[in-house]
Amino acid sequence: MKLNNTKWFTEIGEKTGIAFSLAIEKKLHEETTPYQHIDIYQTKTFGRLMVIDGYIMLSDRDNFLYHEMMSHIPLFTHPNPKRILIIGGGDCGTLREVLKHPQIESAVQVEIDERVTRLAEEYFPSLCDNNHDPRAYFYFEDGIRFVAQAPNNSMDIIIIDSTDPIGPAEGLFQAPFYTHCRRLLSTEGILVQQSESPLIHQPLIKSIHEEMKKAGFLETRTLTYPQCVYPSGWWSLTLAGKDLSQFRKVDAQSKTFSTHYYNADIHQAALALPEFLRCLHPE
Amino acid sequence: MKLNNTKWFTEIGEKTGIAFSLAIEKKLHEETTPYQHIDIYQTKTFGRLMVIDGYIMLSDRDNFLYHEMMSHIPLFTHPNPKRILIIGGGDCGTLREVLKHPQIESAVQVEIDERVTRLAEEYFPSLCDNNHDPRAYFYFEDGIRFVAQAPNNSMDIIIIDSTDPIGPAEGLFQAPFYTHCRRLLSTEGILVQQSESPLIHQPLIKSIHEEMKKAGFLETRTLTYPQCVYPSGWWSLTLAGKDLSQFRKVDAQSKTFSTHYYNADIHQAALALPEFLRCLHPE
């Protein structure tokens, strides 16, 4: 597409009525894998950009928001996380953040499409900084099958770092999958699911809460944060667990690693629910 | 522009490398005033849309975020606000929110372009719900001149609800104007300025703090909130005053009017600064 002689990549949301474009210098790569079509662009102002089936996955410039929130929120909520499972997350950015926590013993990443990870290594090398950490384990297979076969009580945190709930990722937003997640988790275990836009996907967020409750999780909680390249620029994650009121605040305040967005104040702030979302947590 | 047979309005940011589009049903109105060109569209999913000189001003669907934050944040920060001045704000949405506070004695709106207000009355009538409140006063003139001529100590809060700092609004982001604002404000007075995107306008936000300090304000503080239709989907406001650590929390918790985004939790949450913005408030 051309707007004013600049070349743009545009993500078109026919249903949302929103389209979002980034100015492009050139396309660096494209391929069709057994699962999806992947494009990688060099943008003018957002660094590199990965697009899957026409939907923006991440940019160099703003992926820190998503990756830091998806990892540090559950990790500083859980009292003593040691064993982390990431479903999806093929770009390795969530894995990188998880492994910044020194007490982690293992971080298992289960991505269905190995090509996402290989392309991240080539085009987003900084996201893969911790791929050679001996605590990192990679499986390239279906997350739903992996979870169905994994032993009870084998994980402290499960991070569902998935694409949108259409096509292959649909099952990742439903009670049968969440029930297996609960079985895998230890008593204090926490599940976190990327849960789309608070502004435009409220019915989905409500359904995620319901499905998590059906799966037996006692508490569920939605947190929000900005995410420029996703529809509406405002995104959310939803936690499920036994007791989500915990927060290792002192540990977050004295964390030994650097972040670009996350800090203890941001953690608490992200928990504040706008008036129009109070329905998620009837008091 | 056409993308996939849908008609879209697109705001093109050549400098930011971002373009944002909304699907359009039809154009409802356009005119060139002595100050600017105004378009009004019916969108498919965001209600009505006002565009000035090609830049999105507001949509029915998400203007509540901006208007609630620009008004309730300073009004619940000030210990006893009675006299409010709004510079710009021609769509009357900020005025509507301000007048929800029962203790307000007068709210003066100084908009340079009367046509913005007349079009808001016609196309965004709900924003103008409080235009006939006897506490509302309208002046259609240059805000900089108005402030230069206004008497000392005549206002408790000044809300600068302006367009971007290019063209006519540029002077609204500079120390000479802020100095007049300070002169107008009572001792406990608070100035609030819309201060663009935390992600893409950091140098401007830093400069606003510096200009406010030059004008003699002792404290300055930036707060952030989502705003789908503005570049990056993440926006900010910057407060200036003598003591910004105040917050009438109990009053905010027991407010007598409804809001869609703002509440006491959101107020405190909006004050949390991401790591990359900590430079604004060196400790």
Automatic annotation (TrEMBL), chains A, B:
Which top EC class is given? Answer: transferase
Q: Which InterPro entries match?
A: PABS, PABS_CS, SAM-dependent_MTases_sf, Spermi_synthase, Spermidine_synt_N, Spermidine_synt_N_sf
Catalytic residues as annotated in Swiss-Prot or TrEMBL? D161 (proton acceptor)
Q: Please list the residue ranges annotated as the PABS domain.
A: 6-242
User: Keyword annotations for this protein?
Assistant: Polyamine biosynthesis, Spermidine biosynthesis, Transferase
* Pathway, per record: Amine and polyamine biosynthesis; spermidine biosynthesis; spermidine from putrescine: step 1/1
* The keyword Phosphoprotein belongs to this UniProt entry's keyword annotation: no
Return the GO cellular component terms, semicolon-separated: cytosol
Q: Which reaction does it catalyse?
A: S-adenosyl 3-(methylsulfanyl)propylamine + putrescine = S-methyl-5'-thioadenosine + spermidine + H(+)
A Pfam family (short name) is Spermine_synt_N
One MF annotation (Gene Ontology) recorded for this entry? spermidine synthase activity
Residues annotated as binding S-methyl-5'-thioadenosine = Q36, E111, D142, G143, P168
A single GO BP:
spermidine biosynthetic process
Q: Which NCBIfam families does the annotation name?
A: PRK00811.1, speE
Q: How does it assemble?
A: Homodimer or homotetramer.
Q: Which family does it belong to?
A: Belongs to the spermidine/spermine synthase family.
Its job:
Catalyzes the irreversible transfer of a propylamine group from the amino donor S-adenosylmethioninamine (decarboxy-AdoMet) to putrescine (1,4-diaminobutane) to yield spermidine.
- Name the chain's protein: Polyamine aminopropyltransferase
Species, as recorded: Candidatus Nitrosacidococcus tergens
What lineage is this protein's organism placed in? Bacteria, Pseudomonadati, Pseudomonadota, Gammaproteobacteria, Chromatiales
The encoding gene is speE
